[in-house]
Amino acid sequence: MNLILFGPPGAGKGTQADIIVKKFNLYKISTGDLLREEIKKKTDLGNKIKSMIDKGILVSDTIINDLIIKILSDNKFYNRLIFDGYPRNINQTKNLDLLLKKYDQKISCVLCLNVEKATIIKRILGRLICSNCGLIFNEYFYPVTKINHSCDPKSLKKRSDDNEKTIISRFETYLDKTLPILDFYKKQNLLHEINAMGKIDQISEEICDIIASLEA
Fold first, then answer.
1. What is the 3-state secondary structure (H, E, C) of 7-53?
2. Mean of pLDDT over the chain
3. Which residues are designated catalytic?
4. Structural domains in the chain?
């Protein structure tokens, strides 16, 4: 079973993907995480990627597709993937379709998290990520406490691209480039739209019910 999780930046894709991974024993593929890992290495490619992300520009399809090929060609991930925020445009969508066929795989379900623009801005501006354990918190919606986080508070960081100007740019890019992809999957009867304005556990329950129905 391979899944795709869509939604604008700050919709909660990472949080929901982590829940799905644990419950259904899947591997999360986040191109954002893959790109940030490259940035950490401070290679020429990493520096180029950082510049593009900071400006709210999507990284080139060639770079993304090469990363995806590495994943699909690895037997460890065979039909056990959840794509978090990928594909991001119609070219990537068609390329993924071809690659899945090449590696004898398919998409079982496409989930789209819908969130209003104002809420997204607040979510992202308040986002904190632990550089040690990788957990994601939010100053407004999910504050850090001694109960939910045991790492040194100094390990909590904000992403360099989490500022209002970049957020708005990324949101507009999402509407322009990503939403047309939903029609592609809707025609294949794979699309499920989720109201992601509610609480995390309510959203995850709805998502897990949909996924469980696929296995029935």
1. CCCCCCHHHHHHHHHHHHCCEEEEHHHHHHHHHHCCCHHHHHHHHHH
2. 89
3. 13, 88, 127, 159, 170
4. 3-116+172-215 (3.40.50.300)
